[in-house]
Amino acid sequence: MPILQFRLGDCFRLDRIYGMYMENGMPRGGLHADYGATSPTAKAHPGEYYSFRDNEIHNGFVVVTWNLADTGPEHGGFCCIPGSHKSNYKLPQQIAASPENAHCVVIPKAPAGSAILFTEALTHGTAAWNGKHQRRSLLYKYCVSHIAWTSRRVAIPEDIALTERQKILFREPADPYRHFPSLFDAA
Hints:
By secondary structure, this protein is mainly β. Helix content is 9%, strand content 26%.
């Protein structure tokens, strides 16, 4: 939670959750950034941002990918261009067309049980899966409290008792502090 607080501030919510799996021989996915110069919505809309000003990082959307199986250069899986979230330049076509041949594209080693945390402004994608085992990952996507990236909401689990702090993560989007409480006031 402290890392999410550092990236998103005191008021954020769980926007969506989904899983990914890959079998041996499955092809790569395209490199993309969900906002910034390379995104399909290159003229960033409010909330779609990664900026640094006044000695603070401001970010609107962060992903935590939990790896349920080993991933890395020898297997495939998550890949990215480190530092690209700070770029104001479009992804060069030669890198987009052949990321496996681009030295700037990294496939981090991530053993089962580890998490990869990244901003959606980072140029990222999925490397071809060469592992003998199945790739399994769970993606938890968090955003600042006043933003929603989908009209669907993550449902509160009905058969699990949640703390008040956990319940806040499932709230409807709202203005921070006035209509959406801090996740850290009572923590």
